[in-house]
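[agent] plan:
  1. take the single chain provided in the ticket
  2. run structure prediction with default settings
  3. attach structure tokens to the ticket
  4. add a short note for the reviewer (M.T.)
[agent] executing step 1
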Amino acid sequence: MVGSAGSADQVDGAVPDGAAKVGALLARRARLAVLRGRQQTHPRNPEPRQPMSAPVETAIFDLLAKVPPGKSISPEEVARAVDPEGWRRLLGHVRATAVGLARQNRLVITRHNKPADPEKFKGVYRLRLPQEGDPPAIEESA
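[agent] step 2 finished; step 3 output follows
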């Protein structure tokens, strides 16, 4: 017995035709570009977005301003200051921001209380402001 649903393109939940598939893929690709940071604004939200490193950088320098000179802070403290609930997922952002700031000589990454190379360090690290006598983060080869 044949139902009254009719042809396949009239049935709810049917696979869209080729043109609709292409349109859906293009819309998805546009959203992915926004998520990947290639576009500064979202089509539905025209406000420019600030990069993720801005709140992390602010938190780093706010926390360093509160500790005595020469003392350091942990990346966990920075992540907790930015997002107390989801701080673990921010640890990679904290590390990347710290490496960028160390390359600019605005921050020192330490391991075992000694300055570490921001390009090569591994493991547990801490952050502090540069002091006189610290070697530059990136030594230029002559």
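[agent] step 4 note for reviewer: The chain has a mean pLDDT of 78.
[agent] ticket updated
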